[in-house]
Amino acid sequence: MYDPERGWSLSFSGCGFLGFYHIGATRCLSEHAPHLIRDARMLFGSSAGALHAVVFLSGISLDLLMQILVDIVQSARSRNIGILHPSFNLGRHIQKSLQRHLPDNIHRLISGKMCISLTRVSDGENVLVSDFQSKDEVVDALLCSSFIPFFCGIIPPSFRGVRYVDGGASDNVPFFDAKTTITVSPFYGEYDICPKVTSTNFLHVDLTKLSLRLCSENAYLLMRALFPPDLKVLGEICLRGYLDALRFLEENGICNRPHPCLNLPSAELKILKFTWGHRSLESPPRAAAGRMKPKGDELLDHLRLSILPWDESILDTLSPKLTAALSKAVKNQRGYMSKICNFLPIKVMSYMVLPCTLPVESAIAMVQRLVMWLPDMPEDIRWLQWLTSSVCSQVMTQLFPISRSQTPASGQQPSPRDMKALLPSLLSNRGRS
């Protein structure tokens, strides 16, 4: 919620590969209300939301940010079984991109301005980190916040010697004060900036602050958050974020009309002012919308089919830089090799030889991961031993509960020697009952 008197913060939810939505929303805020980001007391983020916020604060250009995400998506989709292929390592891709593109002083740029949501493995509690001493600590925190157990690996990464996993497991939309935080999420729910539906179904669930409306659109988005769709679909999601952010600005009186710096022709500006001044929840005049409709842009043409009627009047206020970057990213994937691989006979043949190629590729990937794991192997093995002993201890505690009178006065858990001494009495008491 936006409160100019008390100050405000921004929180970007975790959303996997749907992080393109955050790009569109942030681009809109930067163009139409730059003070919302510049004067924000704090930025919060979890998983993909944390990655986006840190990259945005680093000053990376829109074209470069778009290219980084496109490269990761293309790498995942280039394999027959996508992100589930053994040779695809999402954490490795993220780490390489962060180490390569983040500036060396990123820890100074975001310390005290950015809170990253983490989930501690030992107790499942949420931890918000906002102080960093080096660039490596920033990268480690982002890797921990984006690590989905079993989906990204078995052994979770560590931050300052403590193991953490995806921040969305405990707090997917972090904030300190809900009344002064503007929340951004690509899912249909109870957020300040999010997609809107015309359905009268108001049922929704709330998991780790992730408010989800019970609708088929959210089911599709949840699946695409883990399994990336085509770049054209991700481009539409990015434009959707721009439109939703613009609607939020208008509803709160922050941006009552389009900014004149969008370099639109004068004729279109007149039509735009007319439609903006006479907007309501009813469908805008189709004549004006038809005259403003750009031709030849398949991203915008497809987006028009899925937006609400009252959003069509602001569709043509989209940032020219954003649409140009998206169009460039979509065109870049259409090389000659991509066209050849997309032929139906080539696809069928690749799936037919998959039982033969997959074992070989899996073996090569296992050897590569083993070589990269060697430096961290001793520490990871010790952690696995601790995890095994902790699980066994909890199982024993559940199977053989101990009364408070038999628990040590210090409140500590009994040692294995005490457990062996108490075991006969517990069994005899259970036999009598």
Q: What does this entry look like structurally?
A:
This protein is of the alpha/beta class. It has three domains: 9-266 and 319-332, 3-Layer(aba) Sandwich (Cytosolic phospholipase A2 catalytic domain); 349-399, no CATH class; 404-433, no CATH class. The chain contains 18 helices and nine strands. It has helices at residues 20-32, 34-38, 48-57, 62-77, 90-101, 106-110, 135-145, 216-226, 231-251, 266-277, 286-292, 298-303, 320-332, 336-341, 344-352, 354-373, 377-399, 416-432, and strands at residues 9-12, 43-46, 114-120, 126-129, 158-159, 162-166, 181-184, 204-207, 210-213. The strands form two sheets. Strands 1, 2, 3, 4, 5, 6 and 7 form a seven-stranded mixed sheet that branches. α5 packs antiparallel against α7 (135-145). It is globular, with a radius of gyration of 26 Å. It starts with 8 loop residues before the first strand and ends with a helix.
List the helices and strands and how they pair.
Layout: E1 9-12, H1 20-32, H2 34-38, E2 43-46, H3 48-57, H4 62-77, H5 90-101, H6 106-110, E3 114-120, E4 126-129, H7 135-145, E5 158-159, E6 162-166, E7 181-184, E8 204-207, E9 210-213, H8 216-226, H9 231-251, H10 266-277, H11 286-292, H12 298-303, H13 320-332, H14 336-341, H15 344-352, H16 354-373, H17 377-399, H18 416-432
Parallel strand pairs: 1-2, 1-7, 2-3
Antiparallel strand pairs: 3-4, 3-6, 5-6, 8-9
Biased composition (Polar residues): 405-415
Region (Disordered): 405-433
Keywords: Acyltransferase, Glycoprotein, Hydrolase, Lipid biosynthesis, Lipid degradation, Lipid droplet, Lipid metabolism, Membrane, Phospholipid biosynthesis, Phospholipid metabolism, Signal-anchor, Transferase, Transmembrane, Transmembrane helix
